[in-house]
Amino acid sequence: MSYRKILSVLTGGAGDRAALAAAFALARRGGGHVLGLVPNPDPREAVPALGEGVSGALVEEIMTMVEQESRNHRTRAHQTFDAVLAEAGASLAESPVAAASVTGDFREVVGNQEDVAVVQARLADLSVMAQVAETTGGEALLMLEAILLDSARPLLVVPPAFNADAGLGRHIVIAWNGSRESAQAVAQALPLLTTAETVTVIAVETDKTDGAAGRDLAEYLGWHGVTAQVRQPMAEGRSVGALLLAEAKAADADLLVLGGYGHSRLREMILGGVTRHVLYNATLPVLLAH
């Protein structure tokens, strides 16, 4: 069992290289295909935001600026895709090939960026995006969250320092609290869990979560041939997100599996939450599902 079609959503930013490296690393496991996608904004969508009474000359100037910026992003993304494709030893293909070889394709789609990303993500086994910064996430963060919440598919978020040579999915940590989101994340990560060298379940004990639930997950994983260690740290007032990342580092993990947005996104934006903390601060790839 492997991810055969992987979507890598590109923004033309510096993080694209790491995201593509992770996508091709997973594709190599089973002769998979990586689709590098650049969702391009329609310049006309910028016009309504300007309000009434704006001169035609200003509208045209803004549309030209949007088109130029989009063109620059597309160019950088395409160059990065071509470079990583070559480094991975993959070949270009627009449709499935008979041989179990690693292939890739690059595509640009104009439209609402979130909608474009979600539509394509629903037709992939896994989506991959670069980690976004808390202060500069912008449209990339909106696409990331749209894929997580609306695609019904798993999402791998990759930090910019990721190095495929260091491995991905050999030492996995699962953040488990028994929620629906956690169950989805584990189910979507099974192709990696069943081939991992080590799997560690982290069930943080809080006033709302029983740490002993981690043993039940370990028993379930055993039916899939996965031997998992269980840790039950106490939150004791500490940030659960920070605690999970600390546990992942202590386990020398190269992947964290996490259920995304167990609380509402608005609540996490206002009050903070595990998903947001991990998204912004993780130094290892994170596989999320909602």
Task: Give the secondary structure arrangement, pairings included.
Blueprint: E1 5-9, H1 16-27, E2 33-40, H2 56-87, E3 91-92, E4 103-110, H3 113-121, E5 126-130, H4 138-150, E6 155-158, E7 171-175, H5 180-193, E8 198-202, H6 213-222, E9 228-231, H7 240-250, E10 255-259, H8 265-271, H9 274-281, E11 286-289
Parallel strand pairs: 1-2, 1-5, 2-4, 3-4, 5-6, 7-8, 7-10, 8-9, 10-11
Antiparallel strand pairs: 6-11
Helix pairs in contact: 1-2, 3-4, 7-9
Pfam family, one: Usp
Family: Belongs to the universal stress protein A family.
Protein name: Nucleotide-binding universal stress UspA family protein
Structure description:
It is a single chain. It is globular and about 65 Å long. The chain has two domains: 154 residues, Rossmann fold (3-Layer(aba) Sandwich), CATH 3.40.50; 121 residues, 3-Layer(aba) Sandwich (Rossmann fold). α1 links the parallel β1 and β2. It has an eleven-stranded mixed beta sheet, with helices on both faces. The relative contact order is 0.14. It has nine helices and eleven strands. 40% of the residues lie in helices and 19% in strands. α3 packs parallel to α4 and α7 crosses α9. The longest helix is centred in the N-terminal third of the chain and has 32 residues. It is of the alpha/beta class and 290 residues long. About 2% of the residues have low confidence.
